[in-house]
Amino acid sequence: MSKMKKVLYFYVLLSIVWVFGTDHLIALLDYDIYTFIAISKIKAVLFIAATFIFIKYLISKNEQFQELEREKEKLLSLINSMVDFVNFKDGEGRWIEVNTFGLNLFDLQGVDYKGKRDRDLAEYTEFYREALLYCEESDEQTWMSGSVSRSEEQIPQPDGSFKTFDTIKVPLFNDDGSRKALVVIGRDITQMKEAEDRLQKAEKLSVVGGLAASVAHEIRNPLTSLKGFVQLMNKNDSVNKLYYEIMENELDRINEIVGELLVLAKPQNIRFTKTNVSKLMCNVISLLESQANMYGVNIVFQSDAGMKEIDCEPNQLKQVFINIIKNSIEAGSKSISISLFEEGGSARIMIEDDGEGMEEERLKRLGEPFYSVKEKGTGLGLTVSYRIIQSHGGTITYSSKVGEGTKVVIDLPVKRT
Ligand SMILES: Nc1ncnc2c1ncn2[C@@H]1O[C@H](COP(=O)(O)OP(=O)(O)OP(=O)(O)O)[C@@H](O)[C@H]1O
Ligand SMILES: [Mg+2]
C-alpha cells in the first residue's frame, strides 16, 4: 500500500473515532442542552481545522511529488537523448536506471530491468550474455580499486563485428565505506579507432613505400646480372642443371618480391583508363583457375549487367584481385563467391570465401608490411593491395569469422575526382 493511501485511511479512521468517541464521551458527562450544543460546535470547528491542516499537508506533499516526477522526467529525457551508454547501478550491482541507448545496445528493450543485476539480465539475451557477465566482472574491479576507472570495452555485434566503448565507471561510497552506487558511462569510439588504425596503416605504408623505392632499385640491378650469369652457366654446364634451375626459380621469386616492393614505392606512374571491371575479373578468374582446381576450390562470379566502366589502372586492379583470391584459395576455401555491382555511386566488388577465417588480432594486422602467417608468404600481398586501392581513392574492408570464412568489400569510385 502506498504511503499516501495509508495516510488517507488513517485520517478516515481518526475522524470516525473523533466523531463517535467524543459524542459518546459528551453523552456520558450528561451536560445540559446548551453546553452540549456549545461543545458540539467547538468539536466541529476543531474537526474543520484538523481537516484543513490535513488537506494542506496532502497538497504540499503532492506538489513535492509532482516536482520530483518532473525532475525525474527531465533527467530521463536528458540521459535518453545522449548518444552514450549511461547506466546507474546500486551498490549491489542492481540496475536503477539505464538510457534507451543502453537498452538497445544489449537488446533489452521491453525488459523490466530495474532491480536486476547483469547476470539476471544475461538470461534475457543469449547473444549479449558473455558481454553482460564481463561487465559485472569489470564493475567488481572498479569497486576493488575504489576509484574512477576508464577502459576500452568491446561489445560484439550480430554481424560479427565489435563495437569499442570508452567506458568510465564512477563508484560512489557511503560515509561508512560501504558501496552506494556505480555510474557507468560508455562512448562508442569504434569509428575513431578504425580511423586511427587506417591512419597508422597509411603511415606505415608511406614509410615502407619510401624504403621500398630505394631497396628495390638497389636489388634489381645486381639481380639482373646474377640471373644472366646463372642462365649462361646453365647453358654451358650440363652436370649441375638441377641446381641452376633451382637458382633461377629462386631468383625469379626475388624478382617478384622486388616487383611488389616497387608498387609500394612512391611516386608511381599510374595511368588511369576506363575499364570494364567485370571483364577484368573474368580474366583474373581464368588466370587462377588452374590453381583453384588444384586446391579443389569452386569460384562463382556474378556481375550486374549494367555496370559502368570505371577509371582505374587495370593491371594494378588485376594484381589486387589476384592477391585477394589467392589468399582465399590458400585459406582452404571450398567455394569463393565474387560479386560486382553498383552501390551508392561506387563500384562494389565483394569477395567471400568459406575458408579458415581470421581472429580479431589477425584481422587488425591485415595490410601491415611483411605480416604473414604462411610459411612461404612474404606478407606483401595485402600491403600492395591496400596501397593500390588507396591510390584509386577507394576503400577495402575485411570482415571474418574463424572457421566460417572471410568477406572482402572493395569500393571504388566510378569516376576519378
Ligand atoms: N581470405 C583469407 N582467409 C584467411 N586468412 C587470410 C585471408 N586473406 C589474408 N589472410 C591472412 O592475412 C595474412 C596476410 O596476407 P597477405 O596476402 O598480405 O600475405 P600472405 O598471403 O601471407 O603472403 P603473400 O605476400 O605471398 O601474399 C595471411 O598470411 C593470412 O594469414
Ligand atoms: Mg597473400
Summarize this structure as a short list of keywords or feature phrases:
binds adenosine-5'-triphosphate, 11 helices, alpha+beta, transmembrane, 417 residues, Beta-Lactamase, histidine kinase, Helix Hairpins, ATP-binding, binds magnesium ion, membrane
Briefly note the CATH topology name of the largest domain.
Answer: Heat Shock Protein 90
Distance between the termini: 71 Å
Number of helices: 11
- Biggest beta sheet attributes: 5 strands, antiparallel
Secondary structure class reads alpha+beta
Average pLDDT value? 89
The CATH C-level name of the largest domain is: Alpha Beta
What is bound: which ligands? adenosine-5'-triphosphate, magnesium ion
- What form results from the Cα inertia axes? rod-shaped
Taken as a percent bin, the fraction of beta residues is 15-25%
CATH superfamily of the largest domain: Histidine kinase-like ATPase, C-terminal domain
**What is the number of beta strands?**
12
In the CATH classification, which architecture of the largest domain applies? Answer: 2-Layer Sandwich
Q: Helical residue percent?
A: 40-55%
| Global Rg | 38 Å
State the low-pLDDT regions, or none.
Answer: none
| Spatial sequence of strands, sheet with the most strands | 2-1-5-4-3
Domain PAC: 149-201
Pfam families: HATPase_c, HisKA, PAS_4
Keywords: ATP-binding, Kinase, Membrane, Nucleotide-binding, Phosphoprotein, Sporulation, Transferase, Transmembrane, Transmembrane helix, Two-component regulatory system
EC number: 2.7.13.3
